[in-house]
Structures are given as C-alpha cells and as structure tokens.
Design goal:
six-stranded mixed beta sheet; 4 helices; about 40% helix; Nuclear Transport Factor 2, Chain: A; elongated
Length: about 190
Amino acid sequence: MRIRALNAASRALLAATAGMALACFAAGCTPQAHGEQDGALASLRAQLDEARAQSAIRDLMHAYGRLIDARDFDGFAKLWTDDAVYVGGPGSERLVGGPAIAGFLRNIITSNPSGVGEPNFHIFFNEEISVAGEQARGTSMSAFVAPGATGAPAMVMLARYEDEFVRQDGTWKFRRRVVSGLLPAPRATSN
C-alpha cells in the first residue's frame, strides 16, 4: 500500500536496506560487518539525497519556462531567493530579487518588441546539475519556439543558462542565473 507510493529511488534504497539486513542476519552480524553495512547504507542514502535534489532542481529549471510561458509572473517570482541575481546577457542590467526579475520579464514579454508570434514556449535540454549539500550549480540550454512565417514552429532563440541554486526551507530556488543568447548569434564586430 504505502510501498506503491514510493518513487524508484526510494524503492531501490528500501530494497538495498532489506538486502543488507538479510545479509547481516545470515552472516551473524559481527560488529565489523555491521559497520561496513552502515557505511554502505550511508553511501546509498547520500546518492539518494543527491538524486532527489537533482530531480527537484530540474523541476525548478522547467518551472522557469512553464511559468513564463503561462504568463504567471507572480508564480515565477517565487522561484527565486530574495537576493537572487539575474543577468540576461551582454549589456543587460543586473536584476536582484524575484519580483524585480519577474517584472523585467513581464515587461519584455507583454510589450513583445520583437513581434514574436503566439503561442510561444521554451524547450529545455542538456541539464547538468552538481549538488553540494544545500547548494548546487547547473548549466542548461533552452530553445524559444514560436510560429514562423508559414505558421510552422520556428526556433526564435537558443540560450545557455549558468545557474546557482540554494535550498531554503526544503525548497530549491534560484540564487543566480546568467543567460547567454547563442542564436540568433551576436553580430560580429568589424576590425
């Protein structure tokens, strides 16, 4: 009943724990064997904690696009720490805090200075996440897709994200995001 509600990582940890308990019982569970199993169990728990953190951070990264695409800027503002920093590329201003970041993106998207067609949306890929306790770093890519001239989907922009995350009260949030536009490519300067 309750076991069905566990995710795959939790089921694996439960199976490993049960297996080690059985092995300990069969081996007579000497203090040395018990200590080795405690170390193995601690290692499995650390791996599970890291996998859970990476999954939660990946969900956060995807929420960034999902909330912007839904034009839910109030929800979007909650993805950030109070002192979060957002840098949107060369020459852009440094924004601090979720409300300021959400307000900036709301203004850009609702004014639509590039005339991007709708519906439009983000597609995220190539996420890499490194967790260190209550902090993490990540990189990812996104494509911004909108209807092209013929109405077929067209990639409007390709960007790379460099992120810092922090877990606050059990919830992962953005602490810093630097966005670098890759396509359309910046214009080359003439020598």
